[in-house]
Amino acid sequence: MKLSRFLKRVAASMKANKTTEPELRICEGVAGTWHYHLTYNEKGTNALCGAQTMWSGSPLNSWGFKPNHMPTSYCHKCEKLVGLGEKEVNTHD
Prior knowledge:
By secondary structure, the chain is an alpha+beta fold. The chain contains 2 helices and 4 strands. The protein has a 4-stranded mixed sheet with strand order 3-1-2-4. A hairpin with a 5-residue loop joins strand 1 and strand 2.
């Protein structure tokens, strides 16, 4: 499993700044099941794109994972807001 360049930058930033940088987290949308967003909110209640969300507990390196047994999707607006392009998404191939 290879982390994208984006996730490596986030990890390096968090390591260098320890607690001074807010932690980027994955949260799940409340409007639909298995639709994920990104947030800096500790409780995961608001996504970067403005969507209302709930905490998911998913690790950041699982962003982009699409299991074969359920229809999982990821917010493209959140990806763009943090500079994560579609080509950088971790597909877990």
